[in-house]
Amino acid sequence: MKITVVGTGYVGLVSGACLADVGMDVTCVDIDQQKIANLKKGILPIYEPGLDHIVSRNVAAGRLHFTSTLSDAIVGSETVFIAVGTPPGEDGSADLQYVLKVAQSIGEHMQDYLVVVTKSTVPVGTASKVQSTLQSALTNRGLTTDFDVASNPEFLKEGAAIDDFMRPDRIVCGVDNERAEGVLSRLYKPFTLNGHPVLFMDIPSAEMTKYAANAMLATKISFMNDIALLCEVMGADVNQVRKGIGSDPRIGHKFIYPGIGYGGSCFPKDVKALVRAGEENGHALRILQAVEDVNDDQKQVMVKKVMAQFGQDLTGKHFAMWGLSFKPETDDMREAPSVVIANALLEAGATVAAYDPVATEEAKHQLGDRITYANDAYAALEGADALLLVTEWREFRMPNWDRVKEALQTPVVIDGRNIFDAKVLRDQGFVYQGIGIL
Questions:
Q1: Which end of the chain is less enclosed by CB atoms within 10 A, N or C?
Q2: What is the pLDDT of residues 237-253, one digit of tens each?
Q3: Do 434 and 420 touch, CB atoms closer than 8 A?
Q4: Which CATH number applies to 2-201?
Q5: Count of Cβ atoms closer than 10 Å to residue 322 Cβ
Q6: pLDDT beneath 50, residues of the chain
Q7: At CA 74, angle to CA 72 and CA 76, rounded to 5?
Q8: Pairing of strands 147-151, 114-118
Q9: What is the pTM of this model?
Q10: In DSSP terms, which residues pair with 116 in a beta bridge?
């Protein structure tokens, strides 16, 4: 089965590589010629555990190809996935210009029947715009070539995307006829052999499913962060509360870990887009607006804890940050709490040294040389007035506390992810602060 994937960002590259890994002939297309040249050399534009091995293996096997020429790629393809970015506009709505440009280009070059699939996260109604764009391009060429448009939202967790694609808990496909359903059923058969379901539904429902799923997960995070702050005020321990409510199977343990706010490419953008969609359709999504507001405030919590310890004016103070990416196992810095925290500390007069296992280069695009970047975790601590744990990378879980204490000017640890044991640190003479615990 020959597949074309347009867009070699996170979704497109992971999807293309995984489809090739089960034996399909996949061509990934991108207008960025430098990115394509790098991919041909084995240089990936993103960090995702295991992705480099899958890409290199399938390129070597002749199943995975990279090009900047869409017209060549779609020849003989049965399906074209649109996996380009949908960044938020100034009003929070999803910007569809890149999706529709791809649809226009497909319509200008397709010769035979295709199923054109929106893999990008797009609002309800996008498929109909893609269909109109394709039809207009074909009409301008004087062609009556058949095609179908489908919606197939991705549910990939950064840091675990390969496993999510290869062993999905569900595959959501929005179609409007049996022909398109048949093509997608064949395409996803290798991923359903172990019982993972393909959920076929109408296209608007599939488009809404992606937003609703991310909005629900974001809601759980903001809810728990709000509860954590109340726990601090009232003397409760949010870690115990989390265990108590997570044991209820109706709630579960996932996404109820308090912290310093969510970030990344999905939750912030999708919550904003869904709130905006509600406004445009006369239905205010009050819960999601609160989710967004809580998350914005939560990114300031660590800064408030620093100022409670050292004062509002941080001139002359120096802080070590462990972690920069918005979550572990990725170099993604989009909407990362670390950026908000670092900027706030700098504005208050402090200096910052940071260490992250993989995200340093990406962080430089947002923070530049306004902070310093250490080569390892302990080097970041030298002369710092406090250690700020921002991202819960595995290598931070069991540090040498004697070494940490020796490097710090003052033994203060502010744990933004609650990965350290408060009692252990306090017994060793540290001033420890977590999120939602006293």
A1: C
A2: 999 999 999 999 999 99
A3: yes
A4: 3.40.50.720
A5: 28
A6: none
A7: 105
A8: parallel
A9: 0.91
A10: 80, 149
Superfamily grouping for domain 299-433? NAD(P)-binding Rossmann-like Domain (3.40.50.720)
User: How many whole angstroms separate alpha carbon 316 and alpha carbon 115?
Assistant: 60
Question: What's the DSSP call for residue 375?
Answer: S
Query: In angstroms, how far is the first alpha carbon of the chain from the final one?
Result: 58
Cα within 13 Å of Cα(85), Cβ side: 11
Q: Summarize pLDDT for 332-391 with one digit per residue, the tens.
A: 999 999 999 999 999 999 999 999 999 999 999 999 999 999 999 999 999 999 999 999
Checking DSSP bridges between strand 79-82 and strand 114-118, what pairing results, if any? Answer: parallel
Q: Using only C-alpha atoms, what is the Rg of the chain?
A: 24
31: buried, middle or exposed (CB in 10 Å: 19+, 13-18, 0-12)?
A: middle
Asked if the domains at 2-201 and 299-433 fall in one CATH topology, the answer is: yes
The most distant pair of C-alpha atoms in the chain lies apart, rounded to whole Å, by: 78
Residues identified as active-site: 266
Each residue of 80-125: pLDDT tens digit?
999 999 888 778 888 899 999 999 999 999 999 999 999 988 989 9
Residues contacting 286, CB < 8 A, separation 6+: none
Closest-CA residue to 263 (of 361, 362, 168, 172):
362
**Could you tell me if residue 24 is left (phi over 0), alpha (psi between -120 and 50 degrees) or otherwise beta?**
beta
What DSSP line would sit under 57-121, residue for residue?
HHHHTT-EEEES-HHHHTTT-SEEEE-----B-TTS-B--HHHHHHHHHHHHH--S-EEEEE-S-
| H or E element in which residue 297 lies | helix 286-298
Which helix (H) or strand (E) segment is 364 a member of? helix 360-367
Sheet strand arrangement including 25-29 = 64-67, 25-29, 2-6, 79-82, 114-118, 147-151, 171-174, 198-201
Topology of domain 211-297 in CATH is N-(1-d-carboxylethyl)-l-norvaline Dehydrogenase; domain 2 (1.10.1040)
- Strand segments, DSSP code E, in 121-254 are 147-151, 171-174, 198-201
The sheet carrying 431-433 orders its strands as 372-373, 351-355, 318-322, 386-389, 412-415, 431-433
Report how far residue 402's alpha carbon sits from residue 82's, in angstroms, rounded to the nearest whole number: 52
Question: What phi, psi does 265 have (nearest 5°)?
Answer: -90, -15
CA atoms of 67 and 438, how far apart (whole Å) = 55
- pLDDT for 425 equals 97
d(CA 419, CA 433): 11
Q: Where in the chain are the domains?
A: 2-201, 211-297, 299-433
Query: Measured between alpha carbons, how far is 215 from 270 in angstroms, rounded to an integer?
Result: 7
